[in-house]
Specification:
Elements: E1 3-9, H1 17-27, E2 32-38, H2 42-51, E3 56-59, E4 73-74, E5 81-85, E6 88-92, E7 106-110, H3 114-119, E8 126-130, E9 145-148, E10 165-168, H4 179-187, E11 190-192, H5 194-210, H6 216-224
Parallel strand pairs: 1-2, 1-3, 4-6, 7-8, 7-9, 9-10, 10-11
Antiparallel strand pairs: 3-5, 5-6
């Protein structure tokens, strides 16, 4: 019987997650299917999927905080992965895996929504958070890690420089870089672009759903094609 996993967000038509996760399921010989669902009421959507026996889900903008109310148990207040075990919906944060292996003393985070909150456990204590509702414009001076946790792709919100690690959570619709990722590469910074960020969190989600090691190379190839 096919196991069903969903992406819940609004909007989701641009997402590469279905292509990436379905390639991963096929590579591991699993009868699983991943489908994107554009939903406005994420709690109602989870209740409906629970009744239909879904195996899990990813949750993206703007629902990462609201979906906590649909979980029987949740890892923090910003959730991007749901796993169903024994009829219970468990919420996890795999976004923090995007920063695995990065050693930073001071970080600049642009954005204060669910994506930024999900990364908080992996950020250094001396992290500066910028948002249009709070401190603005962003200032990355003295920071060795810069994270764009907004959906902004075409506007350069901060000027990166060599020696920084730049993590871009957004990715453009084509194979090109966002404005920040392109500027960071040109400046000689280390770049984790939106597609690599997607793979890092998606690999952990895959393993939580299936209990099988993720085929990371297959997932990377799928989002680059």
């Amino acid at each position: 019987m096919t196991q069903h996993v969903y992406l819940l967000g609004h909007p989701v038509s641009h997402s590469l997650s279905p292509k990436m996760q379905n390639a991963a399921f096929a590579a591991r010989g699993l009868d699983w299917d991943y489908t994107a669902l554009d939903v406005e009421d994420v709690v109602a959507a989870v209740d409906d999927l629970r009744a239909r026996g879904f195996a899990g889900a990813n949750v993206t903008i703007p629902h990462k905080q609201a979906v906590v109310a649909a979980c029987d148990e949740a890892e923090g207040d910003s959730i991007n992965t749901l796993v169903v075990r024994d009829g219970r919906v468990l919420g996890f944060n795999t976004d923090k895996n995007i920063l695995a292996g990065i050693e930073a003393r001071r970080a600049c985070v642009i954005g204060a929504g669910g994506a930024a909150r999900a990364l908080a456990p992996a950020l250094p204590p001396d992290t500066r958070v910028f948002s249009r509702r709070g401190e603005w414009p962003p200032d990355a001076d003295g920071c060795d890690l810069v994270v764009n946790a907004t959906p902004v792709r075409d506007e350069l919100l901060v000027v990166p420089h060599a020696g920084q690690v730049v993590v871009e959570l957004a990715y453009s619709g084509d194979s090109g870089d966002t404005a920040l990722a392109a500027a960071a590469r040109a400046a000689g910074a280390t770049v984790i672009d939106g597609r690599e960020a997607l793979v890092r969190q998606g690999a952990k989600s895959f393993e939580l759903w299936t209990g099988v090691e993720a085929p990371v190379d297959v997932m990377r190839a799928a989002v680059r094609l």
